[in-house]
Amino acid sequence: MSARHVSARSPEATSVLDGFHALEQAALHALKAKASHALVTGAGGFLGKAICQRLLASGIRVTGLARGDYPELTDMGVNMVRGDIADKTAVLDAMKGCDLVFHVASKAGVWGSKQSYFSPNVDGAANVISACQQLNISTLIYTSTPSVTFAGEDESGIDESAPYATHYLNHYGESKAVAEKMVLEANSGALKTLALRPHLIWGPEDPHLVPRVIDRAKAGRLKLVGQQDKLVDTIYVGNAAYAHILAAVNLCSEDASAAGKAYFLSNDEPITMAAMLNKILACADLPAVTQR
Asked: Are strands 192-198 and 231-232 parallel, antiparallel or unpaired?
C-alpha cells in the first residue's frame, strides 16, 4: 500500500497524532507498572533529554548521568548526577536504587584517537553492564547506531539480519559495534538487554543538525557536495524516544521477546540530503541550497 501525504494541519493529521500520543501514553503506563526508577546516561543530550521527558511524564523517577551541568533537566525533575561514563565508580553510584537503565551516552563523530572513542563507548558500556549485574538491575536498553553494519558501501533495504561490518571507516563505528556486542552478550535471565540503532535524529530542540544548517546558510557557507541522489534514513526525536520506551516495556514483560536483539530505528522515509536541508531552510524562511 502506498503512503499518501497528509497535511500537518488537517483534521486527519490531528487524529493520527492524537492516536499516536494515546499509544505512547499507554506504553508509559505499562512501563510505570513494571519500573519505578530509571537511569538515563547521556541525559543532557538530544535523545537523552527526550527520553527523560517521557519517563517523568509517566511518573517514573529519573536519574540522569552526564559530564556537564544541565539545570533545565534539574528543573524538569531529573536527579542529575555529574560523572563520566568511563568512571566505573561514578556509574555504579549513579545507578544505585534504579531498576531500569537507558544507556544513551557515547562519543560520536569521526575525528580523534581510537582511545578517545573506546574509553567512553566501550569502557563506558562495560561499566554500565557491570553495575547492572552488581546491583541486580534487570533491564538495560542500549542506544547503538546503524554504523555498526556500515563498511563504506551503500546500503539499501537492509534489516537486522545484516552482519556487523568487517572493517570500519572510523573509530566511532568500530567502538559502537564492540559495545553493542558486549551489551547483547550480557543478556541473561537476570539482565535483559536490547540495542536500538536510530538513524539521523532530528526534531524540536535539536542542538546539532538544524542550528548548524541555519547558521551556515545565513553566513552563505552552506554547500551541497557529492552525489545528490543518495538517500539517507532519519528519525524524528519523539519517535526515537518512544522506541526506547517500547523497548523497555518489552524487556519488562514476562516473555521479553526482544531481549538479546538489535533493531534499526527510522521513520521509513528515506530522503536525499538536499531535500532534507531545504525543508529545514524553508521552515527558517531561508532560500534553498543548490549544488555548486
From this structure: unpaired
Bridge partner residues of 41 (DSSP): 65, 103
172 annotated active-site:
yes
Residues of the chain scoring pLDDT < 50: 1-8
Specify whether the CB–CB gap between 63 and 98 falls below 8 A.
yes
Q: Find out whether 3 and 268 touch, Cβ atoms under 8 Å.
A: no
Cα–Cα distance, 64 to 52 (Å, whole number): 8
pLDDT tens for residues 215-235?
A: 999 998 998 877 778 899 999
| CA dihedral angle for residue 133, residue 137, residue 143, residue 147, rounded to 10 degrees | 30
Q: List strand residue ranges (DSSP E) for 144-199, in order.
A: 192-198
Spans of all domains in the chain: 11-198+234-269, 206-233+270-292
Give the length of the chain.
Answer: 292
- Residue 233 cell numbers, joined: 534514513
Catalytic residue among 70, 117, 168, 172: 172
Whole-prediction pTM: 0.90
**CATH number 3.40.50.720 is the correct assignment for the domain at 11-198+234-269:** yes
Residue 106's closest CA among 62, 70, 138, 147?
147
**Measured distance CA(222)–CA(71) in Å, rounded:** 33
* Residue located via cell numbers 517521557: 54
